C-alpha cells in the first residue's frame, strides 16, 4: 500500500475509534474496544489493509487484542474525545516531560497552564524531538515546553502512560512549566 493510502486509512480508523464511532455504526465497549470484524465492515476495508495500518503506524496508535474465546478487538491507545476508560494505572513519571505546541498558544498557556481541551488528558512527550513533532502538526513556529513532572508528582498530580508511550495528566498548572 502506498504511504498516502496508509495515512488516509489510518485517519479514518482514528476517527471511528477515537471520535465518532456512532457515525460508522460502531458501539465501543467501555474500554473503547470494537470487534475487528465490525471495524472492517464499517470502514469497508480488508484485513491486510488493517494489519498494514496497525503495523505501519508511526506512533502505534492502535492496539489489537484477542479474547479467550478468540474474538479480536481493536482500540486506539489514546486520544479519544468520547468518554472511555482506558484502564491505565497511574505511574510515576520521568523527572521531566515535554509539550510541543504552536508559538501562538504560548501566552495563554503561560497564563492558565496546559488544559486538556477536547481530549481526555493533556498529552506530554517523553523527549524533545517527539514534542517538536507534535507541535509541528499545526504548521508555523513550534515551542517545546518543559514540564517539571517530578514536582507535579510530588504535589499529588497523577500521571498515566498510554500503551504507545504518551504521558497523560489532567492539567499542568503554569508553575510547573519552563
Ligand atoms: C494547546 C497527536 C492555549 C496545546 C499528538 C495543543 C499528541 C492550549 C492544543 C496528541 C492551552 C490541543 C495530542 C491553553 C493547551 N491555551 N492553548 N491554556 N492548553 N493548549 O491536538 O497535545 O496524531 O488536543 O498546546 O501526537 O497537540 O492524534 O493536543 O496545541 O500525542 O495520535 O491546545 O495528538 O497524536 O491540541 O496532541 P490537541 P496535542 P495523534
UniProtKB/TrEMBL annotation:
Its EC number is 2.7.1.-. Keywords: NAD, Transferase. Coiled coil: none annotated. One of its GO terms (biological process) is tRNA splicing, via endonucleolytic cleavage and ligation. The keyword Acyltransferase does not apply. It holds the Pfam family PTS_2-RNA. It comes from the Bacteria. GO terms for molecular function: NAD+ poly-ADP-ribosyltransferase activity; tRNA 2'-phosphotransferase activity. Removes the 2'-phosphate from RNA via an intermediate in which the phosphate is ADP-ribosylated by NAD followed by a presumed transesterification to release the RNA and generate ADP-ribose 1''-2''-cyclic phosphate (APPR>P). May function as an ADP-ribosylase. Belongs to the KptA/TPT1 family. This is Probable RNA 2'-phosphotransferase.
